[in-house]
Amino acid sequence: MPFDTPLMQRLDLTHPIIQAPMAGGGDTPALVAAVCEAGGIGFIGGAYSTPAQIAELSEAVRSRTNRSFGINLFAPFSPPPMPDDPGPALDRVAPYFAELGMVPPEPPAPPEDVFEAQLAVALESGAAVFSFTSGIPPVHAVEAIKQRGMLLMATATTVDEAVALERAGCEAIVTQGVEAAGHRATFAGPFEAGLIGTMALVPQVVDAVSVPVIASGGIMDGRGVAAALALGADAVQMGTAFLTCDEAGIPDAYKTAVIEAHENDTNLTRAFSGRPSRGIANRFMTEVGATDDILPFPHQNALTKPLRAEAAKQGRAEFLSLWAGQGTRLARRQPAAELVERLADEAKTAAKRLRR
Amino acid sequence: MPFDTPLMQRLDLTHPIIQAPMAGGGDTPALVAAVCEAGGIGFIGGAYSTPAQIAELSEAVRSRTNRSFGINLFAPFSPPPMPDDPGPALDRVAPYFAELGMVPPEPPAPPEDVFEAQLAVALESGAAVFSFTSGIPPVHAVEAIKQRGMLLMATATTVDEAVALERAGCEAIVTQGVEAAGHRATFAGPFEAGLIGTMALVPQVVDAVSVPVIASGGIMDGRGVAAALALGADAVQMGTAFLTCDEAGIPDAYKTAVIEAHENDTNLTRAFSGRPSRGIANRFMTEVGATDDILPFPHQNALTKPLRAEAAKQGRAEFLSLWAGQGTRLARRQPAAELVERLADEAKTAAKRLRR
Question: Which CATH superfamily is domain B6-76+113-250+331-353 in?
């Protein structure tokens, strides 16, 4: 076996490969189970799911594999109040609703506080790993997770965040480099202070914590897997590479956009959700992102949700949130099992380059 | 020997380590020669030097080592005209001049076009490698460099830039990741479209060109060296790691700032030179960077030059351009030879991690 790290042993992994939770439909039970069966570990991104959906997704994964899988939630947070006048944000997106033949947007309903209910179901999901993004998990969650023997992971974008998560009881730290797709997970300070490249972030976090580190951000093939392990990581977490797998549940127009994107086609934007997130620049991102008519998270996310759903139906990529990282030239369409095998082979080859 | 790449063979390097050109005083002849003697290759950053200074620096390097060294220039460019009213930019920095007891700033003189004279001297410098940043070297320079048997290198921040440089005759490509210290070298499009993390940029460039690739940005120790080679690079180019070496010619206040900086203490700023550049955030960067009262490059650079020189004398780091990358927690004070040896040892250890 070419790679063998403490985290791999703990989770009985053949390959140091974690499929990133991608709340929003990418990580279907078929994808999660395929990654697990191939010797990596797949994650259910439950953050946007109801407790009933989380139960259903977990059951669907368990029915497909006996291997370990993971579940992810956002750390709980208090949403900011809706602005006194959400009118400008509604007016800003109304023409796009009209363009798709939809009724005009309504002010989004106040978000429900579902964390405790999500947590309760996730604790009974049968997952072997429980991960959090965008914050420190609360004490009662940490205790309940450990009581069940689940491995507790969380995401850091800076060294200070990694140290805070270790202190809170996290047993592995995922580093989110600036290259990464999707929402910035920065929770200690403004997101601009957490935009560190994976090459710099991983070794500095490895030096600062004593738990295993999992590298994410910009890793798209086996060369990246080997590089992350050379930096001191115990495994990698990859999202974009799995998005274009056959089992991923995103619209085909989204997969096509990822396959065709160049490394410099992504930007960070608040336009879709109100929270900075990396995706492929498209019409919605460019036009709405150029304005300040954007509600704070999660209100903007709720506001644009029907638009994104309809755009998916109509195959209109210009209105989809095309979350993707900076390595898109390396994206390929294939079954997930084939991707995991290819990653393992490429990583072996890359490691051999260092043995000459 | 643990590492052996085509570029190392071509340049007769013991280690795949290039000390980055750091026009502005960091790369003294003592530093350049020490890196060469230790089995890497040092670079003279000649961009801000007069032809006479370039001749003097080269002579000083040659007197210290018989090994190969490199020389770097900016690709020639047409400076934009001075704005009709430079007054706001002068007024903006005047209080800092006063605070250091200096006479008020004067409108900077129009920049001299010294490229051809620099090129002529650099061609006779005895350097084995000639590198360019911030553009494509002109045809006559490419021809003259190759005629002398010098290896021609240039810096790319995107795949398209790398391809354009290879087409122009460059024999090795330095990738500048977003983590990197100093000026963004982006030349094809706005700098915002060239902010790719090293982890994502290197393999995508390796796939797109057939010449050797040298990784730069965020690499601070031997783990980074091994990681870059795993990504497909033939060598690494490191700036910040060499800045705190004993031989580096920067003010001690600057070295201290680098040693003490955290990974998220840097920002991109136009405040010092008019061109986006990564450095440790300090008072000047924060206060001037918050305004639009900044002349275009190279005029702002000329405007702030006397201030930076006086601040260096007085040990006032808050007025220095503290160029540094995102890996500063890994910076150490040591002689350059010791750093090169440490990098080689650490890289060997990191490579061994992949052999288990």
Answer: Aldolase class I (3.20.20.70)
